[in-house]
Structures are given as C-alpha cells and as structure tokens.
Amino acid sequence: MILLKERTKSVTHRVLESLNARMNLPDEEKKKYENQVKGFEGEKQFDFYMTQTHPFGIILNDLVLTYRDTVFQIDSLLITNDSVYLYEVKNYTGAYFYKEESFFAESGYKILNPLRQIDRSATYLHNVLLRLGYRLPIYSVIVFINPDFQLYSLLPNQLFVFSNQLPKYLNTLPSQDVPLKHERLELANKLKEFHNKNYRPDNLPTYTFDQLKKGIVCPNCFSTKYTTTRQNHFCTACGYKETNRQAIERSIKEFKVLFPDLMLTTTRIYQWCGEIYSRQHIRIILKKNYQSQLSRHMTYYSEN
Ligand SMILES: [Zn+2]
Q1: How far is it, in rounded angstroms, from Cα 187 to Cα 180?
Q2: 232 alpha carbon – ligand 1 mean position (Å)
Q3: pLDDT digits (tens, 9 = 90+) for 185-223
C-alpha cells in the first residue's frame, strides 16, 4: 500500500475551528463545526482500518477536484491495477430509516442522501479519469464508520458497508501478488497534482480581523492562556509546549487560512499573536518563511 496523500483538515474545518476559539459562533455554525470534527474523526478511523488491512494499491485521502468548474470532494480513493475504489465515510450516530430514496433520522429530519453524493463524485471522477486517458471501473462504497449507527430498513443496493462489516470488506480487496502498474502511480500523481488545497467553499461564515479574539490558540485544547520562557510557549490550560517560533509560525498559518486576502504584515501578526512577542521577533520569523515585498512604502510578506 502506498499512501500518496495524507488526510488533513479541510479549509472549512480549519476556519470553523479557529473561529470557535476566537469568537462566539452562532449555534448553526457551531453545529457545523461539530459535524466537521465528527466527520474528520470518522475518516481518521477509516484510515486506521485501511492501514491495518494494508490493501494492495495507492491511497489518496481527501481530494478536492474540479471538473468543468464543478468542485467535488473525495474522502478516500484506492487505486489498484484493475480498478478505482471511491470511499465516502459517514460518521452518523443514532437510528435512521431509508424511505423513498431518502434517509430520515428518528426525529423525522431528512439528511443528505449519501447515495446521491457518491453518485455525483463517481460521475465526475469517471470524466476526470477519461480526460487523463484512463478507462477504469470505479467502485463506490459508502462506509458508515460508527458502531452506534442503526438503519431500520433495507437498502437498495450493495454500496454500503457498516462498521461491523468493515474488516471483512477490506479483506476482500486485492492483496499484493503482482507488481503495481507504473501507469497507476502516474495516474495517482496526476490526481494529487489536481488537488485544490486552497479551495474555499462559499458558505463560510463572515468575520473580520477586528472582531476576533487575539492571542496564540493552543492546538491541543484551543485555550489562549499561556506562559512563556525565553525559548518556549506553554499552554497553561493543558500543558501543551512548543517553541516560541513554532507558536508564531503556527499562528501565521492560521491567519493565512482565515484571511487569505489580507496583507501579511509584521504589525498584523504582532496583533494577531496578542502582542506578547516583539515586532522584531515576528519580523525575523516572517522574513525567514516568506518573501518580503514592498507596496506603497509598506512591507508585507507573501509565499513567493
Ligand atoms: Zn492547551
């Protein structure tokens, strides 16, 4: 098994995670954030099973691809010599029933039909592969990863795998007996190249720099309580330790995810970090990691 692309938190997940630590999120956004966290945990759980089984092929996790201006997301892709397996991982909990091609929670609420979702991804993926010159069968699989998920009706097809069936299912995947075709690695690399890591969905909440709480947010517990020494930054809520440089670099990345259109300047980052490190200290770190640019007598920093 070759893991060509590791799973990372989506932009939506990262934005909501920061906002949740830096402002009072409205209930609806908070719910969205919780769903992101839950979804990510489910996907990590799936990755764990996958790594344990070690199927033969190449794995690409959370791909964001575009076909003719339409963006589609793939939780996991397994490319083998003969086929492509497309996985949609759902971390649903509770009881559901399936009726008239829809999923209903016990409360009566209708949820997004994962069948429709995966059909859409499979169609676009098929076209992307074709455009790249590959004609491979795509097998779509929806994985209900949580053992606390119950479905009270028969499903119309064989696309579904429940958590208790997952180990058995993964053992049906091809195992290593022949060498992996070179063209498959080529295909996987092309897909990885096509991944849009800067994709920002248009349904993100609105917020401004001034509105958000400043300071270094702990990556472990999201607290902004801290103490520092000459070398290190400590979270006093959970004990997480990193170097001052790491804390600043991490905060710059967080700033860039939240504000892709704002200029990266020493003053901004000085304020963003809660004014606990000197401008001088921050300037050194910006200079080290980014290119300095001059615009209207102001220095700002960019990736290139
Ligand atoms: Zn902490």
Answers
A1: 12
A2: 14
A3: 999 999 999 999 889 998 999 999 999 999 999 999 999
Separation of CA 21 and ligand 1 centre (Å): 12
Nearest CA to 112 out of 101, 123, 121 is that of: 101
The CA 234 to ligand 1 mean position distance, Å, reads 8
Question: How close is the Cα of 248 to the center of ligand 1, in Å?
Answer: 15
Question: Collapsing DSSP states into helix, strand and coil, what is residue 141?
Answer: strand
158 burial level (CB within 10 Å; 0-12, 13-18, 19+): exposed
Can you tell me which residue has the tokens 């028969």? 154
Identify the pLDDT of residue 157.
Answer: 65
Ligand 1 mean position, distance from CA 19 (Å): 16
State mean pLDDT over 228-246: 97
Residue whose pair of structure tokens reads 């300047």 in the numeric block: 265
Listed in order, strand segments (DSSP E) in 91-153 are: 94-99, 102-105, 110-111, 138-144, 149-151
Ligand 1 centre and the CA of 18: distance in Å?
14
Q: 112-137 burial, b if ≥16 CB within 10 A, otherwise e?
A: eebbebbeebbebbbebbeeeebebe
